[in-house]
Structures are given as C-alpha cells and as structure tokens.
Amino acid sequence: MFTSTQECADTTPVSAPPRTYAGQAQVNTDLIAEIVDEIESMDEEEARKLVVSLVEQIEAAHFKLGGVIFKLLGSEGADRPDKEFLENVRAGALREEDADDLIDKYCLPDEARVPWDKLVGIPWSRFNRIADIVTRDNVDELMSLAKRECSFAEFVESTELYRAIRNAQETAKNAVLSTWREREKIGAAKG
After folding, report:
1. Which terminus of the chain has fewer Cβ atoms in its 10 Å neighbourhood, N or C?
2. pLDDT for 46
3. Do 92 and 172 share a domain, yes or no?
4. How far apart are CA 147 and CA 169, in angstroms?
5. Each residue of 144-155: b (16+ CB within 10 Å) or e?
6. Which long-range contacts (CB under 8 A, 24 or more apart) does 146-154 make?
7. In a domain, 11, yes or no
8. What is the sign of the dihedral through the CA atoms of 144, 146, 151 and 155?
9. Pick from 111, 133, 168: which residue ends a domain?
C-alpha cells in the first residue's frame, strides 16, 4: 500500500495485459502497431502487391489447415471429429462446416487420383477454386483454364460456367438413364 503520492509516482507503471478472448492466444499489441505502421507507410502500388500476396498466403494456409485437420482426424478419416477436437475448433473460431470445406479442398484432388505434379504452377486462389471439381479426366482442361491470363473475376466466371456445363451434362445423362430404365421396365412388363 502506498503511503504518499511521491511513492506512487516513483513506481514503474504496470502495463495492461494483452486483451484475450476465450480460446484465443494473447494479442501482441506491439505486432499490431508494427502492422499498422507498415500499412500506413506503404504506397498504393505496394498495397496492391501486398493484397495479392496476402490472398495467396491465406489460400495456402487454408489448404494446409485442411490437411492438418484431416491428419488430426486420423488416417481412417473419421466422419466426425471427437468432442475435444470440436472444442478446439470452436475455440479457434472455426465452424465445423468450414473445417469440412477445408478438408475437402485438401482431400478431393487426391481422392480423384489427380497427380499432384499436374496441379503445380497456379496460384493457390485458383487451385482452391477448382479443387472440388478436378478429376483425372479434366485436370488438363482445368489447369489450362487456371493458367490462362485473366482477372480472378473472369477465372471465377469461367469455372462457374464449367460447373454449370458439367452439371447439365450429368443431369442429361441421368435423364437418359432414367428413361432407358423405365423403357426396360415397360418392356419387361409386356414381355
């Protein structure tokens, strides 16, 4: 307990501890200040380049996070993670649905037996856009699309068109098969 104002003034001030939220790591306020200083001191060209770089880092981190989550689920790829894992996911502010999406981006090209060496040479943002539709049969076509020089918006539009065509083809195939099966049943009933 302080006995005088002078004694209080001579003490070293205690800095407030970094702000934390349930399940999150402590925030380093010096790091925040460094980032703000870096952003405030950059020019427009540097900012544009940094946006592209950061988006690629985020996409690469998402792919890696999907792989790590998949690894945590075990080599058998359990349908649902255990309770402890789910608590850790929630503590990290990652919803189960988001975790599932990340796992899919990591696993789908491998499940489709697409050789990884065919998927190199494109930005992560484009890879993540095609990860759920790439197969051995369409990998060359999709990689050609992904390597094309165009804006990301044009690339997204192209992949959406590709998805729509693929879905229409699948729908048409199912309709033909359904019609064929119905005709078979009618023929068997008459016969």
Report:
1. N
2. 94
3. no
4. 25
5. ebbeeeeeeeeb
6. 146/122, 147/121, 147/122, 152/125, 152/126
7. no
8. positive
9. 111
Q: What band does 16 get if pLDDT is binned at 50, 70 and 90?
A: very low
Residue 17 lies in a domain: no
Contact 91, 24 (CB under 8 A): yes
Of 82-96, 155-169, 171-185, the one with minimum mean pLDDT is 82-96
CA nearest to 100, candidates 61, 131, 69: 69
The SS3 assignment for 37 reads helix
Structural domain of 156: 115-191
In the chain, the largest separation of any two C-alpha atoms, in whole Å, equals 109
Residue 78 pLDDT: 52
In whole angstroms, what separates CA 88 from the centre of its chain?
18
Instruction: Assess whether 94 and 152 both reside in one domain.
Output: no
> What's this model's pTM, rounded to 2 decimal places?
0.57
- What domain count does the chain have? 2
Residue 187 lies in a domain: yes
Distance of alpha carbon 71 from alpha carbon 183, whole angstroms = 48
Task: Tell me: do 39 and 91 sit in the same domain.
Answer: yes
